[in-house]
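[Structure tokenization] protein backbone as discrete codes

[Encoding] learned vocabulary of local backbone shapes

[Begin record] amino acids and matching fold tokens:

___
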Amino acid sequence: MSQSQVVDRFMEELLQGRRGPCRQILSEAVQQGCNAETIYFDVLWPAMEQVNRLYRQDRINLAIEHLATRINRMLTDQFQKDLPRRPLIGKKIVITCADHEPEELGAQMCTDLFETNGWDVYFMGGGVPHDEILEIIGQLRPDILLLYGTTPQGVPGVRQLIDLIRNVGANPTMNILVSGGVFNRADELWKEIHADLFAPTVQEALQMAIEAPPRQPEIRIPGAPKKRRRRRRPPLLLELERQQVGAR
């Protein structure tokens, strides 16, 4: 059975909230030679993205979105233990996300896949106050901070977090990588919120994180006043919000 056929069968059962059949389809895929990593990349991740897209397009309601997302998360938990464990590469990543179930799932899958590729991973999930994220960054001094997914309404908060991290200078060589959510739908938005890197998929995030050189911190002249950044809503965000209002 091809990958697309597996995803189609899986999505049909997933959107009906049928846990047992979803589990059986993936078990059959494993019996046919798919390993846990392939299940993540070729079934669970595409299914997660399809569910999110269908919900945004009002083609499924919140109840179906919740059922599907929780089944996906249950299966992710089950397959995580079967992922390969590659040697540590001496790099560290902290992962956080928006405070919603779909973003938590995407961030959790990123966590599992970074860990299987040898990263030392710290996953905070969503809803963590900015000052506590800053404290963790100062303590752990990771190579990468991955901010996974947010809504249009959450973008100003993400930019505030990034500005806070840069202004305090707790870990100036750390790259901030964003992925998922509205960042995948608004071109160049990642630049407007002052992130260092953007990856639309987990595969690209893995490659980008390993290839990116340490961030070059800003050189400040002692006694010189700090540059003040104007607080404004990014124009791309405003345009996205206008489109959403017009679609209602």
Observations:
- The chain has two domains: 3-80, 92-211.
- Strands lie at 92-97, 120-125, 144-148, 175-179, 197-198.
- The chain is about 55% helix and 10% strand.
- Residues 92-211 form a domain with the Rossmann fold fold (CATH 3.40.50.280).
